[in-house]
């Protein structure tokens, strides 16, 4: 290799390393200020959010904002949730090794990756096919081999892999889909935004105790709407 080529290669490598380092610093700061700095204290949740490269789950045009305190557009009119909301929804289900978790609304795949670093298996359903494909690609590239992504209507859950220790719904539904309740293990927890689309909804925690369903309203949120299709 000639001297000039070597210089260019080194300069490229240096730029790449400093960019990666920059994102890592921003990510640490995001966790310190927006997640631990608020009311998230679960160690597993904080550790996973310190490590999952959120900037790789957003379009290139949004990378600079990946660690900001807000949701971001991911295409097809959908959004990746604000980091604090991801942290909150992760902590509240009490994620642990050995569990299998169902997510409805894969979107970018970020919430699935955050869960995948803690629990044994993550099943995630996305209703918009290109988003499901895109999320599958980045999940594969980052070698999360315990995440399964399916294109379909999450209303029906994923019967074949039920029951689940926890269910995380990341689109606002008018009511809690009965198939999801049925696929929750006794003692299992579901977190779901409930309310009218395009209005403020309530984030709800649903706990299954024997045959009883206990629901608790957590706080007002704004999520993209839970839509429906014929494809299960
Ligand atoms: N968890 C995502 C957030 C995505 S926003 C992330 O980490 O990026 C919510 C997603 O739910 C959107 O991509 C939307 O297309 C999807 N969605 C809406 N209704 C759905 C349904 N019935 N089944 C599956 N996905 C649905």
Determine the fraction of residues in helical runs and give it as a percent range. Answer: 25-40%
Strand-residue proportion: 25-35%
General form: globular
Say what the CATH topology is.
Rossmann fold
Distance between the termini: 55 Å
Mean pLDDT: 95
Low-pLDDT ranges: none
DSSP E strands, number = 9
Provide the spatial order of strands within the biggest beta sheet: 5-4-3-6-7-8-9
Q: Give the domain tally.
A: 1
CATH top level?
Answer: Alpha Beta
Structural class: alpha/beta
Using only C-alpha atoms, the radius of gyration works out to 19 Å
Number of helices: 6
Structure summarized in a few sentences:
This protein has 232 residues and is an alpha/beta fold. The chain has one domain: Vaccinia Virus protein VP39 (Rossmann fold), CATH 3.40.50.150.
């Amino acid at each position: 290799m000639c001297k000039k080529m070597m210089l260019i290669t080194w300069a490229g490598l240096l730029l790449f390393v400093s960019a990666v380092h920059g994102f890592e610093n921003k990510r640490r700061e995001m966790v310190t200020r927006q997640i631990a700095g608020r009311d998230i204290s679960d160690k597993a949740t904080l550790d996973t959010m310190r490590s999952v490269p959120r900037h790789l789950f957003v379009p290139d045009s949004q990378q600079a904002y990946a660690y900001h305190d807000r949701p971001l557009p991911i295409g097809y009119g959908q959004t990746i949730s604000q980091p604090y909301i991801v942290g909150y929804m992760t902590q509240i289900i009490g994620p642990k090794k050995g569990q299998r978790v169902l997510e409805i609304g894969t979107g970018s795949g970020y919430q699935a990756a955050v869960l995948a670093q803690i629990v044994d298996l993550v099943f995630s359903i996305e209703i918009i096919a290109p988003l499901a494909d895109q999320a599958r690609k980045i999940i594969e590239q980052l070698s999360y081999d315990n995440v399964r992504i399916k294109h379909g209507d999450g209303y029906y859950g994923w019967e074949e892999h039920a029951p689940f220790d926890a269910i995380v719904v990341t689109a606002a539904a008018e009511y809690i889909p009965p198939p999801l309740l049925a696929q929750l293990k006794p003692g299992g927890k579901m977190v779901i935004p409930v309310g009218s689309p395009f209005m403020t909804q309530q984030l709800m925690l649903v706990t299954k105790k024997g045959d009883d369903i206990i629901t608790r309203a957590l706080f007002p949120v704004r999520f993209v709407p839970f839509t429906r299709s014929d494809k299960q």
